[in-house]
Here is the input.
Amino acid sequence: MGKLHLEVVTPEKVMVSQEVDIVVAPGTMGEFGVLEGHVPFLSGIEPGELRFASGNQTERFLVTTGFSEVFDNKVSVLVDAAEKTTEIDLERARKAMERARERLAKDRGGEDIDFLRAEAALKRAMVRIRISEKIN
Amino acid sequence: MATLNDIKIKIGAVKKTRQITKAMNMVAAAKLRGAQMRMESFEPYATKFAEVLGNLASRIEPDIHPLLVKKEKISRVELLHFTSDKGLCGSFNSNLINRAEKWMNQEKDNGVDIGLTAVGKRGRDYFKKRGYDLIGSHINVYGSVDISFVNQISRGIIDRYLADEVDGVYMIYSRFISMGRQVPTLVKLLPIEPPVAEDEEASGADAEYLCEPDPEGLMIELLPKHINVQIYNAFLQNETSEHAARMAAMDNASRNCDDLVESLTLAYNKARQAAVTAELMDIVGGAAALKG
Here is the structure.
């Protein structure tokens, strides 16, 4: 099977840059997989799990929002933040979820920025928890 | 003429000053390394982002998003102005402020109101004291800037723009060119000038991309991020420039201290020699008088 080059880039640093067999990423319209020879492709990225496999090794990353480009067997994923799922701090994520829930309960239904921000925080925390519970 | 003791005290003082400037020089050098590293690690992200955005822009209608549309009447614009929080960095801050004032005067002559958002204490204090119209300020944020903080700033800017509170947004920051050169730079943030697609043949941009959602949807997601990228870049550049400017300024100051110590030591030795000679003359004169 042919190889793809995957790059996961955040504003702070290049998280991943290596040859892989397959990439599965959380797109705006659902999860998508990329193999060698994929057509040029652009997609938004939603908070979720990014997987890629090389040989029989699979690695998982948690990513936040961003977008990705597939071109000429190169996959570039640009996200605000990414971390290895094994390095997720479950305790912190739980606390963040609690905080976000509280805030949401306080001013339910408001369309203001705080509400939207809390909602986004809740979403992130839930993704973290879901993913890290799955692997442990 | 200063007495021996006065000169001695002065030499001591200058030496102490030199210790401080030397220490600050080294601190600035260490911080500069950190800032420069952050700047370099942002590079891949920024480059890729510009590439994709340019690619998308070439394939959509330029007026699909309000952030792309020029407003017809411009009566008030916002300036995001960067300075440092601390002084002792040569003409770094005054260059930035001069640049801003020159530009603001120009705009005012055209009948445009200006609201300022000041990043950095130096600029904020300056503009506040002189009664400029401050929309907001961010103090002591360098070093702890991350993308979510930048997100907040840019969201504020975009909200104000969409609510017609301002009709354009610009920023002035110091661009880091080299250790010896940092240039205050004016950049237009909003409305977004449609990014120019690079040479299509060269980049292979004419390859048909499959887009999810559609190109328009993607563009709408990317545009606010485009502002983020630019502001984040300004933060990094400005911080790096600040440390480079401080390093140069402190290096100069240390050298001036050296010169000062040298000339003071010379004066001290001269004065001492004069005193010794005078005393000797006295003794010789006294002895001669006794003999006589």
